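As the next step, I wrote out a protein sequence along with its fold in token form, included below for the reader:
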Amino acid sequence: MRIKRSETPEGKIELQITAPADKVSEAIRFMEFQLAYQNGIDIQNTKDLTFAVIAKVGEAYYHSFLDFEVMRYLAPFAVTQEKLAIIGNPQVESTGKNIEPGKELSFRAVVIPKPIYEIEDYSPVKIRVPKPEISEADIDRQLLKMAEEYTKYEKDEDHPVQDGNDILFGIKTCDSKGEEITQLSAERRAYTVGQNYIPGGFDAQLTGMDVGETKTFDITSKDFLRVESEDPEATETYTFTVTILEIQKRVIPAITDSWVEKNIPNLSTVPELREEIRKQGLLYREQELGNMKSYLAASEFARRFKGSIADELYELTREDIMSNMQQALQAQGKSLRDFIQEQGGGDQQFSMQLMMQTREVLTQGFSLDALARHLKLEVTDQDIEDTFHAMAPGYERQARMEFEMTGRMYQIEEGALRNKANKWLVENAEIEYISE
């Protein structure tokens, strides 16, 4: 890339970027893959992807999408090439022309340089953390959990079905057309009454049935359709024929030497198992403690931050936090409104917490930057590898490839340098261990 840098009157950095033809073609191809994925186009069986995408989304939308997205794809490569430390993402402007593969592309990007702050006191911090301990009660709870994983079900005395009973039943389910639903039919199936696996009152129908009794009943529900319906109020009627085969009881095994020898590889006695649980528990606590030390040390050091942070930086960081939060909630099938209601504090408390979190992120980052400069720390490739390992354990190569392919290695280098400064803080901290 050919890049010319200049400073705007507002103190931002303007980049006049000329991307080579091969890089432009790469960016266009990447965006076509995105459009294909978003619009259900089978990439593997499509010979002319460009034609297929345009046919699906229309030529006007195709070119308007490329106009900004290609430049947004290319701008981070310029930031990495220029070794810039910035806040937020590069802002680009439309060229007003259709972007074509195989041709150079010149465009303008504006970035906000990361401000430089100094800290008056670089002395080690003092933090308090819980002492890593595994109590006998902790081991007892783990043993019970382990035993429950080996629970067996045996026939219990016959009695009418009650809520919470474990039962074995035969079930046949038909839809409103009389066609059997094989996924909900079985000669023998274990079930816990009250788990409400089938909505519409299925479990209530089972309550009171005797062992050996067969019962046929209908359930009409809008929450349990075999196929998706465009009508949100649509309902369908299902016919269930259920036979109670037996009432069951859960049998949790006792953890004895013979049980350990039979079920736990390389161990033969209960004391050996307890010691292994203690050892693994301590390893887990140490990992938790390592993360806690890192956060507490950075947070304590950030208390020494005295600078003024521009409102624009607050807004950019707040938007980034919100975006990450919404992506995480979406992966859990929740909305932001659901999350706020679960927290129970309302919109005002959420906004206050978000503001405090934004300031914490900014002050910790800027303080660690200052410490890294003070210590004259430099990022090595091992630091980069460690950062990817912390970010995506087990998938480090894939993560690195993604950041390299999208030109965002400058973000990883910033994170690696801050992690290195944070590590120095922990290694040199005065740590007091307290019993929980």
